[in-house]
């Protein structure tokens, strides 16, 4: 340990860039790991004290945290995860999760710099493997790693980052089943920032439109039913029109007119709540969203008319006009009503 302590001190002086010193530290850690692996797990550990094992683990993590090279990072993070013999006064699970988190964040830096698609895919697979383990274990060990409210909030923040990065990896790998699982899993801890990141990642993907539509719909449903105390319900109601706008346009692009019409119906219900006489008048459906949605819906009605789908035309046009009439300015309602009369 004195030798390792000296090398770490020298590493710090070199701003963690000295490869020769890093290699020496790796050699010592490898020797320590071999010694521990040879020990009988059923017998007391007489090689290193608990204090020394804790120091080995924390030192490995700190080197991983400060090392500028991702290759060094991953090696040291693995070492600090493989310490054995730590007792209850040291949170082994917490340390393990920290290493998973650190590896994930640092590998994602490489991914965003990588231009080769094949190499990106390899790195995303690695991200997915690490984050999957983190997600599987985090709830089981929540009590152990969150002994105070501050620790609890810190781990929730890391958990959200892990979910966001795993969603990014799954989208890149075209694993939309896992994307759906991640969205559903987030329900208990989701907040405005995470939901916004999810929506952005989904919309920016180059996936088939049907996958995007389905996942946006799942995200809205998750937000609707979320028990998360971190999701401000008032804020959600204020941002819901943006989500509905996205889903409406996506469903039209996918020619899923049944879904688009159900979104239009939901918007009508929410827009009625903005009227002054409504008991929920504190919530206002944005005027610009009403105008956009009613205009696009009416244009769709015209398309139905041109396709001789008279029943669909009548239904969509009436809903578009009803929605426009709910706006504070009735100019659009009169305009659409006049256009509708020319169709009939």
TrEMBL record:
One of its GO terms (biological process) is regulation of synaptonemal complex assembly. InterPro entries: Spo22/ZIP4. This is TPR-like protein. It comes from Aspergillus sclerotiicarbonarius (strain CBS 121057 / IBT 28362).
């Amino acid at each position: 340990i004195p030798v390792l302590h000296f090398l770490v001190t020298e590493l710090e002086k070199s701003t963690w860039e000295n490869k020769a010193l890093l290699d020496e530290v790796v050699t010592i850690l490898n020797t320590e790991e071999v010694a521990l692996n040879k020990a009988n797990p059923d017998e007391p550990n007489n090689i290193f004290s608990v204090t020394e094992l804790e120091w080995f683990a924390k030192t490995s993590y700190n080197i991983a945290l400060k090392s500028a090279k991702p290759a060094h990072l991953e090696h040291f993070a693995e070492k600090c995860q493989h310490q054995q013999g730590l007792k209850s006064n040291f949170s082994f699970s917490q340390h393990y999760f920290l290493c998973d988190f650190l590896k994930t964040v640092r590998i994602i830096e490489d991914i965003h710099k990588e231009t080769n698609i094949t190499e990106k895919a390899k790195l995303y697979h690695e991200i997915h493997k690490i984050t999957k383990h983190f997600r599987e274990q985090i709830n089981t060990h929540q009590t152990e790693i969150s002994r105070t409210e501050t620790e609890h909030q810190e781990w929730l923040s890391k958990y959200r980052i892990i979910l966001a990065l795993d969603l990014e990896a799954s989208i890149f790998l075209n694993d939309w089943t896992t994307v759906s699982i991640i969205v559903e899993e987030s329900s208990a801890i989701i907040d405005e920032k995470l939901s916004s990141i999810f929506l952005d990642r989904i919309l920016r993907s180059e996936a088939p439109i049907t996958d995007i539509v389905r996942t946006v719909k799942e995200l809205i449903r998750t937000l609707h039913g979320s028990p998360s105390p971190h999701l401000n319900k008032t804020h959600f109601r204020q941002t819901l029109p943006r989500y509905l706008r996205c889903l409406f346009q996506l469903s039209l692009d996918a020619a899923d007119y049944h879904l688009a019409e159900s979104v239009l119906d939901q918007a009508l219900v929410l827009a009625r709540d903005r009227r002054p006489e409504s008991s929920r008048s504190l919530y206002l459906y944005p005027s610009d969203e009403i105008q956009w949605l009613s205009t696009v819906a009416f244009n769709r009605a015209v398309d139905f008319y041109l396709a001789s789908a008279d029943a669909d035309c009548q239904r969509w046009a009436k809903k578009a006009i009803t929605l426009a009439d709910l706006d504070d300015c009735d100019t659009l309602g009169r305009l659409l009503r006049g256009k509708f009369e020319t169709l009939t």
